[in-house]
Inverse folding.
């Protein structure tokens, strides 16, 4: 279907390509013909580049040129951020989103954060180290080439002739250096800490001596300390849970030989990444004949495939439940609060003045300076995820497990060349470069791998229990559990022994031994939907240090849906023909958009609605008649979030009222969670519980206030805007237990899609022959509204369709829209 569509639009697509590339729409050199100085970019349907070269540098050149052509403004703004110049060109009050969620900070705070890193030469010091802590030679060559390709495109085009109006003629668009690219890579690696802590790290300031002394004189009682600890822990937990709900997530499913029909293994990659900004993904195929042939997607501007496949292995990543940072509570001297107590003696904090340029209201450029503070454990923060951590009788210092990590670049370059899942495990263990991600993979030999082997703080269970503060115990243990919230540690900074110890088997200081981190290889299936490693496969539950997540605790509805989808397909109990996964039914099952929440709770919700006397509910001071909602929900028997479903939007708003911000186990279920049956419990929603009725009333009131009919089709209300065209989008929020996650939010003051399914790929291996893959990049290849590839795959995604991959030379050459660019 995708090809028929492309043929129908061939003349326009080819003319647009020719205008951009200044070449002809004919087949060009094959991968084997690309010389060392002639990187070749061949574009097939939907603007997907197939880049070939004979060296890593040439491959990087092709990648840099093609990535800049599609997304020059997004990339240029990223380099502006990591060089701490947003305030200089965009003003200090503007917004920046350096982390993994859409929670934004000011340009000024972002600049101060990155300027401190740059002043401390963090990235430069890492570049001076040998591998694995420093980049390997092939990484250096690839990034050197990337810079050349990016700068070549910019030179050929000219800043004033950039087609994207977002940065056309902008003074901040400039040629880049290798250091810019490494800084960008480092910013991606540390964003798991930057997101919750950036503002606190650049606003922490010591109190006056009198304030500190007065606070110290008011010694709280034990009961007051306990209440304060619980309140702080709960607020941090709730804020982090909200950030996780509104930020990155992912599903991935690897199916081994036992679960595949007509092949040896399969992989479904379904990352839920931002639809705007620096964390967009971008698709390509990268080939050096005889060395590497890899296809998939990367975070824009990183010249390697992060999620994809080669000839023998397919892999994806999902956001893990490891907290990539830890806090240290340090007692300060009330008379001099920049001194803190360690092992019975006072140590002085180090101060550092950080200055950045800012654009003043009159157009002049001034400077803003702040004094930032650090301890032996790391820099001092005033908050975590916006929750204040007052610097009074104590201060909180941060240690970031990824601050000294550039190893992720080596990790991805090696994954691109892996031969089987054992190669994948070896790469993860020897680099420990993966930041806050799980890895799920399948190989041609029929293996399915789950591995949570990453840069993890060296916090054993025993070390944690001996060093956690009262607040830290509540956060780190399961006392205040919410799904998918990482176990944040707060340690007693008065004891130097509470710092993360060095493990001789870890790659770098302070890292957990990779052999203690969970992994599982099976022939049926493994998967992850952002819960911990415990139920990668429910037939073989995993155990691991608490720092990596929880065990024997309720799973999210999305995790349940992923496991049940795999089990039912392999057993042939899902109503589809046959048993085992095929490319067709894997794609069908993902875009069926089934809601686990509806499976569990729709009937009880309908009963609660029907049992409401006269249909009237008094809630939040409003008398709401919910009777109209009852037949609409009762008729929604498909439980899906496809575009033509009616009742789904009403159920989503109701469920968000009932379950938003809560753990699934906290809802009014009649059957509680049972760790012996974690996939099917809790269940049986209580229709007599007032929360069910009241949540439905709130949803009905909100939809009527917004002028949305209660029986509105999903296509009428959930859309993304491209050049004024509103494209309907199927899927739903993760709380609904839908695998195809789509998260609406505000973009430039208007409702749009902010996060969700991004680069979706399905790969099948057979005993012989090339991998069989299909994919869709939901927001399309280019952020440039003038590009022909600004919305083409978005329309494809809306229609539930996929791009059949062109991977072999024969497949690429057969593309009816083939356009070639040779970089002589």
């Amino acid at each position: 279907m995708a090809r028929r569509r492309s043929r129908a639009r061939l003349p326009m697509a080819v003319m647009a390509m020719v205008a951009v590339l200044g070449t002809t729409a004919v087949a060009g050199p094959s991968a084997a013909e690309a010389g060392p100085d002639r990187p070749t970019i061949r574009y097939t349907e939907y603007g997907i580049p197939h880049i070939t070269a004979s060296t890593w540098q040439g491959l990087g050149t092709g990648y840099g040129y093609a990535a800049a052509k599609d997304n020059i403004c997004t990339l240029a703004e990223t380099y502006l951020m990591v060089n701490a110049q947003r305030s200089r060109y965009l003003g200090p009050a503007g917004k920046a989103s350096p982390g993994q969620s859409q929670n934004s900070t000011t340009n000024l705070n972002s600049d101060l954060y990155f300027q401190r890193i740059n002043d401390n030469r963090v990235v430069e010091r890492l570049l001076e180290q040998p591998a694995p802590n420093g980049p390997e030679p092939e990484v250096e060559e690839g990034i050197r080439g990337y810079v050349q390709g990016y700068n070549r495109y910019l030179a050929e085009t000219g800043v004033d002739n950039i087609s994207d109006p977002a940065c056309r003629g902008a003074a901040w668009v400039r040629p880049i250096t290798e250091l810019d690219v490494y800084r960008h890579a480092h910013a991606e690696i540390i964003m798991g800490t930057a997101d919750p802590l950036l503002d606190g790290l650049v606003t922490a300031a010591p109190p006056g001596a009198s304030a500190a002394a007065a606070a110290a004189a008011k010694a709280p009682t034990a009961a007051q300390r306990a209440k304060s600890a619980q309140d702080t822990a709960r607020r941090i937990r709730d804020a982090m849970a909200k950030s996780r709900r509104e930020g990155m997530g992912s599903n991935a499913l690897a199916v081994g030989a036992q679960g595949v029909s007509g092949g040896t293994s399969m992989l479904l990659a379904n990352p839920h990444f931002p639809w705007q900004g620096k964390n967009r993904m971008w698709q390509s195929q990268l080939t050096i004949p005889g060395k590497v042939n890899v296809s998939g997607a990367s975070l824009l501007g990183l010249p390697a495939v992060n999620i994809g496949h080669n000839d023998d292995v397919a892999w994806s990543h999902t956001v893990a439940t490891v907290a990539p940072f830890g806090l240290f509570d340090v007692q300060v001297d009330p008379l001099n609060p920049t001194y803190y107590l360690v092992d019975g003696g006072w140590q002085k904090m180090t101060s550092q003045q950080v200055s950045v340029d800012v654009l003043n209201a009159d157009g002049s450029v001034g400077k803003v300076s702040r004094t930032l503070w650090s301890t032996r454990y790391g820099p001092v923060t005033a908050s975590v995820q916006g929750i204040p951590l007052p610097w009074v009788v104590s201060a909180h210092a941060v240690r970031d497990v990824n601050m000294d990590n550039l190893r992720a670049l080596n990790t991805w370059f090696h994954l691109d060349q892996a031969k089987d899942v054992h190669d994948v495990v070896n790469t993860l263990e020897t680099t420990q470069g993966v930041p806050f991600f799980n890895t799920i993979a399948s190989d041609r030999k029929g293996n399915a791998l789950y591995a949570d082997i990453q840069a993890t703080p060296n916090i054993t269970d025993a070390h944690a229990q001996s060093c956690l503060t009262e607040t830290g115990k509540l956060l780190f243990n399961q006392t205040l559990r919410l799904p998918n919230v990482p176990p944040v540690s707060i340690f007693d900074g008065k004891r130097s022994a509470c710092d993360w110890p060095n493990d001789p088997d870890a790659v770098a200081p302070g890292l957990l031994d990779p052999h203690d981190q969970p992994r599982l290889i099976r022939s049926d299936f493994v998967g992850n939907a952002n819960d911990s490693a415990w139920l990668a496969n429910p037939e073989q539950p995993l155990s691991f240090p608490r720092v990596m997540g929880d065990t024997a605790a309720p799973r999210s509805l999305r995790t349940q849906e992923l496991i049940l989808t795999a089990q039912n397909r392999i057993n042939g109990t899902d109503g589809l023909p046959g048993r085992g996964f095929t490319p067709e039914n894997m794609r069908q099952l993902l875009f069926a958009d089934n809601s686990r929440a509806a499976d569990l709770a729709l009937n009880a919700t309908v009963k609660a609605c029907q049992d409401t006397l006269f249909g009237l509910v008094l809630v939040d001071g409003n008398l709401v008649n919910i009777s109209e909602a009852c037949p609409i929900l009762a008729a929604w028997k498909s439980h899906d979030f496809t575009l033509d479903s009616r009742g789904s939007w009403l159920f989503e708003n109701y469920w968000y009222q009932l379950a938003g911000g809560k753990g699934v186990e906290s809802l009014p279920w009649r059957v509680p969670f049972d760790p012996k049956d974690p996939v099917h419990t809790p269940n049986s929603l209580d229709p007599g519980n007032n929360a069910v009725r009241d949540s439905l009333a709130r949803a009905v009131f909100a939809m009527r206030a917004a002028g949305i009919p209660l029986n509105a089709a999903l296509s009428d209300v959930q859309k993304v805007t491209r050049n004024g065209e509103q494209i309907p989008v199927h899927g739903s929020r993760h709380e609904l237990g839908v695998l195809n996650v789509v998260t609406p939010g505000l973009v430039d003051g208007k409702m749009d899609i902010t996060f969700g399914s991004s680069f979706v790929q399905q790969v099948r291996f057979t005993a012989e022959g090339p991998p069989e893959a299909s994919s869709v990049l939901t927001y399309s290849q280019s952020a440039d509204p003038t590009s022909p590839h600004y919305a083409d795959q978005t329309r494809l995604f809306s229609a539930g369709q996929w791009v059949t991959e062109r991977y072999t030379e024969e497949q690429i050459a057969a593309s009816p829209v083939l356009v070639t660019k040779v970089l002589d």
Notes: The mean pLDDT is 93. The longest strand covers residues 265-274. The chain has 24 helices and 36 strands.
